């Protein structure tokens, strides 16, 4: 059997000029992602700068039967870029060019390694708007967003990454390069292959470039922060807003644990005794924004809100929004290990799901801060724990299992935006059914017959 050093020499000889390393001190950061507790060392890490280099690496991989795990910034929260079978980590962070901004067709083309915030800023400079805004947008890459089908705070109104992908360049197992999609608003010629790769977590091909849809920016925006003494009243407010046919661009919440962690971290001025805080934001035509903001405030007051604060200007709006955007960073400071989970339920089951998470935390003697996208039913129960405490980690695992099973029992799903990866593959069949998993395996077998692309993720091949 060929050893790691021989593999590395073979790779360098086959792909001259490719930036690569097999030095242990450099490999360590590529042995884990944002989950932190899931780790495995690769044989080497490579940094291609062109699609041609990616193609050559995958051609070599197919010949040598070496696993390849694609990675961007490593912000994933499901273990999706952990090289569990060793092999090569293919880091696309140096493929970081904006290739085109087409203001006539409202599109932007970028290499996969472009940071998401740069996409947003480039669109803004062109007088356009790229709505997806994952919490990690300042560091995550657009290729990673597409591979995970990332969501974000504006998902309720504007949708997720999938809704803005018009085309993809993908390198297939073996090195063949595929372009799927175009700038046409309408195109129903054959299977929509781009949708196959969106959310596939690097298991079907390596996304090297993306063509994104942009839209005109909203003319006005209004941001409000609502404070509650009762989580159920906050959840009822959300249900009432949606029932009133109002679709805010943002409808987020923080529970009491998260509020206090945010205050310790950012000192925004949130009331520490609040049981829940809602961040409500509406955008669009100025008249519509005024009407929607007034209607949401009225609904909040009818449902027992303690107070509602409306941002007076853009700076104050950014300050209020930071209460939600800093939630994970704030929680991560509390314990040695932070495990951010992701479960989604129908909106009308939110109060029940939130109560269940709180009860699970009490029963398993765990500290759980819960925040998330209440407007679309996507919750992020976050465990503040210590991975070195094995007994406590067993309780964390038991609690997570209960939470995922309850989400499915309520008609929900095990992940709304973080993907399956390693962390949730044992729950996939229970969430989508064995028939669905069987079809996924057939697709994987067709596109990656040797199982070399991000092996061990989403499901096992047998």
Top keywords for this entry?
462 residues; alpha+beta; Uridine Diphospho-n-acetylenolpyruvylglucosamine Reductase, domain 2; Uridine Diphospho-n-acetylenolpyruvylglucosamine Reductase, domain 3; Alpha-Beta Plaits; eight-stranded antiparallel sheet; five-stranded antiparallel sheet; 16 helices; 17 strands; 20% strand; globular
Q: What do you see in this structure?
A:
With 462 residues, this protein is α+β, with helices and mostly antiparallel strands. Among the domains are: 88 residues, Uridine Diphospho-n-acetylenolpyruvylglucosamine Reductase, domain 2, CATH 3.30.43; 116 residues, Uridine Diphospho-n-acetylenolpyruvylglucosamine Reductase, domain 3, CATH 3.30.465; 109 residues, Alpha-Beta Plaits (2-Layer Sandwich), CATH 3.30.70. It contains 16 helices and 17 strands. The strands form 3 sheets. Strands 10, 11, 12, 13, 14, 15, 16 and 17 form an 8-stranded antiparallel β-sheet that branches. α8 crosses α10. The longest helix has 20 residues. The mean pLDDT is 95.
Q: How is the secondary structure organized here?
A:
Elements (H helix, E strand, L loop, with lengths): L3 H11 L5 E2 L2 H4 L16 E3 L4 H14 L3 E4 L16 E4 L6 E5 L4 E5 L4 H10 L16 H7 L6 H4 L6 E7 L5 E5 L12 H4 L8 E8 L6 E9 L2 H13 L6 E6 H11 L9 E9 L1 H17 L4 E4 L3 H12 L1 H6 L4 E4 L2 E2 L5 H14 L3 E7 L4 E8 L4 H20 L15 H8 L1 H14 L15
Parallel strand pairs: 2-4, 3-4
Antiparallel strand pairs: 1-2, 5-6, 6-9, 7-8, 7-9, 10-12, 10-13, 11-12, 11-16, 14-17, 15-17, 16-17
Helix pairs in contact: 8-10, 13-14, 15-16
């Amino acid at each position: 059997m060929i050893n790691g050093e021989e593999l590395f020499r073979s790779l360098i000889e086959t792909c001259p000029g490719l930036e690569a390393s097999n030095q242990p001190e450099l490999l360590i950061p590529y042995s884990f992602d944002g989950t932190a507790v899931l780790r495995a060392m690769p044989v080497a890490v490579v940094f291609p700068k062109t699609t041609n280099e990616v193609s050559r690496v995958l051609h070599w991989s197919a010949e040598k039967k070496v696993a390849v795990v694609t990675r961007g910034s490593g912000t994933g929260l499901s273990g999706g870029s952990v090289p569990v079978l060793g092999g090569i980590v293919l880091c696309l962070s140096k493929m970081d060019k904006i290739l085109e901004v087409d203001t006539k067709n409202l599109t932007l083309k970028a290499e996969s390694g472009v940071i998401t915030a740069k996409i947003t800023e480039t669109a803004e400079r062109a007088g356009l708007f790229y709505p997806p805004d994952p919490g990690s947008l300042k560091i995550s890459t657009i290729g990673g967003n597409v591979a995970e089908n990332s969501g974000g705070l504006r998902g309720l109104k504007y949708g997720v990454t999938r809704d803005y992908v018009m085309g993809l360049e993908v390198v297939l197992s073996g090195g063949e390069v595929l372009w799927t999609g175009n700038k046409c608003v309408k195109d129903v010629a054959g299977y929509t292959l781009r949708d196959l790769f969106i959310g596939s977590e690097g298991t079907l091909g390596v996304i090297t470039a993306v063509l994104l849809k942009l839209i005109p920016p909203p003319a006005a925006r209004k941001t409000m922060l609502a404070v509650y003494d009762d989580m159920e009243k906050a959840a009822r407010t959300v249900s009432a807003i949606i029932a009133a046919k109002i679709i805010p661009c943002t409808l987020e919440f923080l529970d009491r644990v998260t509020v206090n962690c945010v205050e310790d971290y950012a000192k925004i001025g949130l009331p520490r005794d609040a049981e829940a805080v809602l961040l409500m934001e509406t955008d669009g035509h100025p008249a519509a924004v005024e009407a929607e903001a007034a209607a949401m405030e009225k609904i909040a007051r009818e449902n027992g809100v303690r107070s509602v604060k409306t941002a007076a200007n853009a700076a104050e709006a950014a300050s209020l929004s930071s209460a939600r955007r800093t939630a994970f960073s704030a929680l991560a400071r509390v314990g040695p290990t932070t495990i951010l989970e992701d479960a989604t339920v129908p909106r009308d089951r939110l109060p029940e799901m939130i109560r269940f998470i709180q009860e699970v935390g009490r029963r398993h003697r765990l500290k759980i801060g819960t925040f998330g996208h209440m407007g679309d039913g996507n919750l992020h129960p976050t465990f503040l724990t210590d991975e070195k405490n094995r007994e406590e980690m067993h309780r964390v695992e038991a609690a997570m299992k209960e939470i995922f099973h309850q989400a499915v029992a309520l008609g929900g799903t095990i992940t709304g935006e973080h993907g399956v990866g390693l962390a949730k593959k044992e729950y996939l069949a229970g969430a989508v059914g064995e028939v669905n998993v069987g079809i996924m395996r057939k697709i994987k077998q067709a596109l990656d017959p040797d199982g070399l692309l991000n092996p061990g993720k989403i499901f096992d091949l047998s």
